[in-house]
Amino acid sequence: MAATLKDIASKLGISITTVSRGLAGYDDVAAETRQRILETAAALGYQPNLIARRLQKQRTDTLGFIMPTFGPRFSDPFFSEFIAGIGNEAAEHEYDLLVSTHAPESEEEKQAYARATQRGWVDGLIVIRTRENDSRILHLHEHDFPFVVFGRTDVPFEYPYVDEDGVAGMQLLVQHLADLGHRRIGFIMPPAGLMFSQYRLQGYYDTMAANNLPVIPEWIVEGDLTQRSGAEAVKRLLAATPQVTAVICGNDLMAMGAINQIQQDGKTVGVDIAVAGFDDIPSSAYVNPPLTTLHQPIYEIGRQTCAMLIDIVNGRTPENQHALLTPTLIVRASSGSSIL
Amino acid sequence: MAATLKDIASKLGISITTVSRGLAGYDDVAAETRQRILETAAALGYQPNLIARRLQKQRTDTLGFIMPTFGPRFSDPFFSEFIAGIGNEAAEHEYDLLVSTHAPESEEEKQAYARATQRGWVDGLIVIRTRENDSRILHLHEHDFPFVVFGRTDVPFEYPYVDEDGVAGMQLLVQHLADLGHRRIGFIMPPAGLMFSQYRLQGYYDTMAANNLPVIPEWIVEGDLTQRSGAEAVKRLLAATPQVTAVICGNDLMAMGAINQIQQDGKTVGVDIAVAGFDDIPSSAYVNPPLTTLHQPIYEIGRQTCAMLIDIVNGRTPENQHALLTPTLIVRASSGSSIL
DNA sequence: TTGAAAGCGCTAACAC
DNA sequence: GTGTTAGCGCTTTCAA
């Protein structure tokens, strides 16, 4: 059994309090006593019991991240990188990270959020993949529970977030394609229920309009962010409107699926048809042809989100409660050259 | 402030003990009293304080996963899928998952493991990416701390693990290439310090020998599991020994990098040179050409590892302490057709 | 059927 | 400087 303060105290014949203070480095402990305490603690291999300390301090020094997972074959590289970002930032400030995996919108997910606002689980929460009028954010706000969101949602109150500027990102991308001479540009959008889909869609509409390009409803199809759905979506899209000369995909994974499908149909991506993605996951530079996409610094976003949460948990007001980062356009071969 | 047992008790004018028992569903509480307790608890929005309960129970109902992370651009899809697997299994058994990110072999990582064996952090630990004579496993074993490993290592004692059979996997893959007529097969191996590299290398050697194929040291180069390193490694490999007709990569990410590099050099993968990977990440079916690889059910491995740990944490002996799963060969276009 | 009391391991206000 | 005491919120003997 592991040693406790009591063990040290009784071994030394002094009180638990003194031991506690000696270990904590208070200066009202005699240097000599302190020395003996330290020695005995080391000898006994004393390690403070975190739970006891947490009960006393009324804080867990733990941050929570409820990760939306889908089926078994769920492995979006986004999450590895995001977790690495928040995890490293948390570790740096001596916070633990509790990760809870649940299907989005599920009953379990609801329970997880209910649990979070319960005391003694985590001190604060990171929310991602926001949805319209996001019930999770509503819940956290109602319970006055500390949280930071990666993404925005349309709720009638203030809340701290970090987000990509999806509108600006799409603006860069659509403009790039328009400049190459494309006039019929399709869009495989991410699930409509996700807020970032709305912004990306908005950016698409805006920039098409700004270039006096028409937008036909058939040019827009929806995917679920996986490669497989990208392949299926592009099939539907091209079957319905073969005259499309460029396809923007809501994320790189879908773009990879779309490219694969187009190639299977015997067309050459970057020549017969331009394809672009969103995210700039590491693979996107290595697929064939390399993918034109919008770069998002996921790791940095994770860090920043976490840093903001740590501020809030500690009662500090973050300098900037709303960080909006503009993605960078990365032009590679998949968007081809001018078709004018 | 959240409601406590005390609040309910004083509101009802009964003792804390009775409230506790009523809520816990003990049958020695009068039905009517129980009813009133339940109602008041609901009215007050009572949620048990987890820390207090944990202190009392002397267990955290939390499992730990110390994730080896590398630089910022770290986003191996493996981890997303693995975490989803352990996370979902943990959630099903009402365990929380604590994820701690650290650079492998770092001082911080050591501290994290030291912390783990401290009481009150987690009840058990999942270890992955084993290394030779893995100090983490040594540490956990010495402290008699519950853990399960994904991977094996060479320590002189028994420990529970789930692992892929890397030797058998490579056997399938090398044989496939040999059957296609390849005689000069290069190997971009994963970092030599990782145990799975050893097994994969062993399988490569064994099967080359079984087919009476020579192995030249120059045919083997090392990568660090990223796409970038796959590209660099294949460059080195082909510069040193251009006569190689097939290249096996230690994982799919490196294979993607290798394919890209080969294509940049103007060669056709699957025709001029065969390439294969290991893991069967979702992307591997969608790259161009699609990747021949060995399928590993990462999600299932995660689940199984976690299930085993939960057994151990609860003092049950898992049926099978050593699970060895043979990867499945997935043949796609990157390995081409017979060159005989 | 209910309550009083102890205790999980720690910290902190206060007294000596 | 050091010890006494109380208390964080809960569970669990043991009495009543």
Number of strands of chain A: 12
According to CATH, the fold-level topology of the largest domain in chain A is Rossmann fold
**What is the approximate shape of chain A?**
elongated
Largest beta sheet of chain A: what is the strand line-up?
A: 2-1-3-4-5-11
For the largest interface, the chains and their residue counts are: A-B, 64 and 64 residues
Q: What amount of the residues of chain A lies in strands?
A: 15-25%
Distance linking N and C termini of chain A: 77 Å
**CATH level-two architecture of the largest domain in chain A:** 3-Layer(aba) Sandwich
* Arithmetic mean of pLDDT of chain A: 94
Task: Spell out the helices and strands of chain A N to C.
Answer: HHHHEHEHEHEEHEHEHEHEEHEE
Largest sheet of chain A: 6 strands, parallel
User: Quick one: CATH superfamily of the largest domain in chain A?
Assistant: Response regulator
Counting copies of identical and different chains, the oligomeric state is homodimer
Q: Fraction of residues of chain A in helices?
A: 40-55%
Q: Determine and state the CATH class of the largest domain in chain A.
A: Alpha Beta
* DSSP helical segment count of chain A: 12
- How many independent structural domains of chain A? 3
- Provide the gyration radius of chain A in Å: 26 Å
Structural class designation of chain A = alpha/beta
| Poorly predicted residue ranges of chain A | none
